[in-house]
Amino acid sequence: MSQVKTARPLSPHLTIYRFRPTMAMSILHRITGVSLYAGTLLVAWWLVAAASGPEAFSYASAFFGSIIGRIVIFGYSWVLLHHLLGGLRYLLQDTGNGLQREQSTRLALATAAGSITLTAILWIVVALVG
Fold this sequence. Notes:
Elements: H1 21-52, H2 54-65, H3 67-94, H4 101-129
Helix pairs in contact: 1-2, 1-3, 1-4, 2-3, 3-4
């Protein structure tokens, strides 16, 4: 190896960056994407149980009717809505809009607020209808 040191720039590390809402939403978008796989497996289990007959469906219904099952469904609905809004945010940014620092920060905060608001509205409607 050569002993000559070049004057090339070094890659920045995490201590240089200030944590911003856009970073948080990017990380959360990836986490929600992975979480959707686990939630979709539960949806598939419920559908297979429904197709398998009353006994299998009663087990699935008992799980999803329990407090843990309802927490899982609530979390899955938030994950789904958050990932949807994050995808729409990225789609908007792919068109070249919302790329300035202030705009991207506002869009990131709107994604977080929108997913929480839509999840609350969804569950209020479910509670009123059901």
